[in-house]
Design goal:
elongated; single chain; Jelly Rolls; five-stranded antiparallel β-sheet; mainly beta
Length: 272
């Protein structure tokens, strides 16, 4: 009897899926219950840039909501929602949660904060949301105040980083490039920025045309895409595609596919 062909597992596309998480590009695509939530007005400070989301701070019975729909790619083994939170309050109690902020993804409550969690600066919050891979869900913040004494919940730099994609192809008979390349870097006067240029050559040894290669940027880096310390620019010999493998590899689409025996060189600037 005919048998159904096996279905391949979905491949993760690592990346950061929240749009305008720093609120520096207006309000889109965020939905806010009041037009003044995303703001740069005086009274609070941003964690980064000049804008932030200021929920509540009214001092009377009040509810503010802020949300965005995001799609977490299927096949991702890790997905982390992070944001920075500052809380200030006029409440003096040390035991009663009068005013609250709830962070949710979909219908799942990730955390609830209150006037008891007040702090003098920002604190980063992080949550594992890998259970939602392959779904489109809403990231939402809801702040509520009681009838008196304000509490301000200030949110900034919201991100949802995904990783765990398929490892890019290594050196093989099809792409017999050198197993490594070395980039000589020079620093600026203060030693805070290092830059250099490299050209990597390779030959296609396979009868199958070769139309893409990968630059491995950092073999032992295990952070998030938003914190990736390496940048690549001015690529020649191909078109830079998306970062992959937790943003440690860069896909390059070749200008013209290489037939068997043909060689090509990719040039690029690297900074750290």
């Amino acid at each position: 009897a005919p048998q159904q062909a096996p279905t391949a597992a979905a491949a993760c596309t690592p990346g950061q899926v929240v749009t305008n998480g720093g609120f520096e590009s207006g309000t889109s695509p965020w939905s806010q219950s009041q037009s003044s939530i995303i703001t740069s007005r005086a009274g609070q400070a941003a964690h980064g840039g000049s804008s932030f989301a200021w929920l509540n701070g009214v001092g009377s019975t009040h509810t503010d909501t802020l949300s965005q729909s995001v799609t977490i790619p299927a096949g991702c083994s890790t997905a982390a929602l992070t944001f920075w939170l500052h809380i200030d309050t006029a409440e003096t109690t040390t035991s009663t949660k009068y005013d609250k902020l709830t962070a949710k993804i979909g219908s799942t409550t990730l955390a609830t904060y209150s006037n008891l969690d007040k702090n003098t600066g920002y604190a980063q919050k992080s949550f594992d949301v890998s259970a939602f891979a392959g779904q489109t869900v809403t990231v939402a913040f809801t702040g509520t105040e009681d009838s008196s004494l304000q509490t301000s919940f200030v949110v900034d730099d919201v991100a949802l980083d995904t990783a765990g994609g398929t490892t890019p192809p290594g050196d093989s008979t099809r792409t017999p490039a050198a197993p490594s390349y070395t980039v000589s870097l020079s620093s600026n006067a203060s030693g805070t920025v290092w830059t250099g240029h490299e050209s990597a050559s390779f030959t296609n040894a396979s009868p199958t045309p070769l139309n893409e290669v990968y630059l491995r940027l950092w073999d032992n880096y295990h952070g998030t895409c938003s914190a990736m310390p390496i940048t690549v620019g001015n690529v020649t010999g191909g078109t830079a595609g998306a970062l992959s493998v937790a943003c440690t590899a860069l896909k390059i689409d070749l200008a013209t596919p290489l037939t068997q025996g043909q060689s090509a060189t990719i040039g690029f600037d690297l900074g750290i």
